[in-house]
Amino acid sequence: MMCTKRLLVCLTFQTLLIISEAGRNLKPNSQASGLRSSATGTGLGSANSGRFRPQNPANFPGPGPQTSGTSAQFSPQTPGAPVWPRLQTLVHFPSSISSVGRPESPTNNGFPPLRPPDSTFQTMPRSASSSSISSTGSGFLRPGRSSLSSLGSISSGYGSSANLQELVGLDAPRSTAIQTSIASAETCVDRGTVPVIIASAENCFDYFTLAVSWAPGYAYKQWKNGKNIRETKVTPLWIIHGLWPSMFDRSTDPMLTCWRSDIFFNWNRFTTSKILGTLDNSWYTIFAKGYNNKKLWEHEFKDHGSCASRSSVIGDDVNYFIRTIQLVQQLNISSTLASSRYKAGFTTKLRDIIGIMKNKLEVNIRVDYVLHPQTGENYLSELFICYDVKLKLMDCPNGVLPNYKLDTDIKLVEQLPTECRT
Fold first, then answer.
1. What is the pLDDT of residue 410?
2. Coil, strand or helix at 226
3. Measured in whole angstroms, how far is the alpha carbon of residue 190 from the centre of its chain?
4. What average pLDDT does the segment 93-113 reach?
5. 182: Cβ contacts below 8 Å, ≥ 6 apart
6. Alpha helices in 211-274 (DSSP H)
7. Is the pLDDT of residue 175 over 50?
8. Would you state the pLDDT for residue 3?
9. Cβ-defined contacts of 399-404 (< 8 Å, 24+)
C-alpha cells in the first residue's frame, strides 16, 4: 500500500514537470511571434512612418544580443525556472501621437519640441495710394493745409529726403565759416560725366540771404516802384520773399554757371505734394492779377533756387521751398518782435529791431525800410537773415551800421497806405 502511494506521487511529479517544461518551451515562441506580428502591421514604428526620424535603439546592460526596430527586449532567465519573460519597451518610442497634421516629439528623449513653421512673409499695411510721406521718389501726399512738421521727409524725385535730415538754422550750431570767398567761374563748373558731377555750393556762391517781408511795408515799397498791388493780399503778416544765394562782395552776383541745367521747376510735383497748401499761406504774391503764385515760385526757383540746390542740405526744387519755409517758421518773427512790445502800428528804433532779433538768433541781421514822403515815417519793409552754404546762421556781411542809422525810427505799419488803394 505504501509502495503504491509512493509510485503515484512520483508519477504525478513527473507529469507536472513535463507540463512545466512543455509550457516553458512553447510560451516564449508564441509571445515573440505575436510581438513580431504587431511590428509589421500597425505598430508604432510604421504608424509613425514619415513623421519621426529613426533613432538607434537604447543600449541595455546584460548579456545577449540587442535587437533593433520594434522587437521586444528580454531579460535573461535562470534555466529551469518557470518564469515568464518580461517585456521592455524601447525608450525612443513615442508614448502617444498627437495628430497627423502637427506631430509632437516624444517626451524625455532629447528631441526638441516641434513648432509651427515661422512666417516668412509679413503683410504690411498699405495706404490707399503710394503718396506716403515715407515714400521716396515722386510719391507725395494730396494737397492740403499743413504745418512744416509733416513736410520733412518729402522727396521730389531728383534728390532724396536725405537732403532734409541735416539740422539747419536755429536747430544747428552757429556757422564757423570764414567769410572769405572761394567761389569763381573756374570752380563753379559741372563735369559732363555719367553721372554728372555737380560743383558744390561753396564753389559757386558764398552764403544765403533769407528775405522775409512785412506785407504792408513791402507792398508800399513796391507800389512806389511802380508795381500794381492786390490790396486783398496785403494783410499785417510776415510773408516769404525768397532764399537767395549771395556773394560777400555785394556788387557781384553768384557765378553765372551756378544755375543748373539738370533740374528745373516741375509744377506737377508741387500740385501733388503736401507743400502746396503751406506755400499758399506763407509764400504768396501781393501783386495784381496776372502775376499768380505759380509764376512767383517759378521765378524764385529759376533765379535763386536752381543755384541754391547745389547745397547738400537742399538738393532739388521741392526741397528748396521746404527748407525756406522751415527757416522762416523757426524765426517766428511776429511773436519774437511782439514779446518786446513791437507790434503792428508801433514804432521803435532800428537798433531795437536788430537787437531783438540778435537776442533770439545770436547773429546780426539786416533791415530794409521805406520812407513815406508825406508823413515822414519809415515803414519796415523786410528783414534779411544770413546763413552759410549749409544753412547755419551767420552774421550778415556789411551788417554793422553807424549810430545815426541805428537811431532811425521804424514803424510797423498795420495796413497799406490809402494812396496805394484803387
1. 98
2. coil
3. 31
4. 37
5. 202, 203
6. 215-224, 267-271
7. yes
8. 58
9. 399/364, 399/365, 399/366, 400/364, 401/350, 401/354
**Closest residue by Cα to residue 164 from 309, 307, 266:** 309
Query: If pLDDT is split at 50, 70 and 90, which confidence band does 322 have?
Result: very high
User: How many CB atoms are closer than 10 A to CB 103?
Assistant: 15
Query: pLDDT category, 159, cuts 50, 70, 90?
Result: very low
Domain residue ranges in the chain:
167-420
| φ and ψ at residue 390, rounded to 5 degrees | -100, 15
First to last CA, the chain: 162
Q: What is the pLDDT of residue 22?
A: 61
Q: How far, in Å, CA of 62 to CA of 59, rounded?
A: 9
What pLDDT shows up at residue 162?
66
- 193-209 pLDDT, tens per residue? 777 789 999 999 999 99
For residue 152, give Cα distances in angstroms to 148, 192, 276, 341.
7, 31, 14, 33
Locate cell 514779446: which residue? 339
CB atoms within 10 A of CB 24: 16
Instruction: Report whether the peptide linkage leading into residue 195 is cis, meaning its omega lies within 30 degrees of zero.
Output: yes
| Three cell numbers written together for 129 | 495710394
Q: Across-strand partners of 411?
A: 347, 379
Q: What is the CA radius of gyration of the chain?
A: 47
Which CATH number among 3.40.718.10, 3.90.730.10, 3.30.450.40, 3.30.1330.60 corresponds to the domain 167-420?
A: 3.90.730.10
Which three three-digit cell numbers place residue 149? 512738421
User: Cα 95 to chain center, whole Å?
Assistant: 53
State the DSSP string of 165-204: TS--GGGSPPP---S-----TTTS--B-SSSPBPPPGGGT
Contact status, residue 324 vs residue 240, Cβ threshold 8 Å = yes
Q: Which pLDDT does position 139 carry in this prediction?
A: 27
Nearest CA-CA partner of 316 in 182, 137, 173:
137
- Residue 128 Cα to chain centre, angstroms: 19
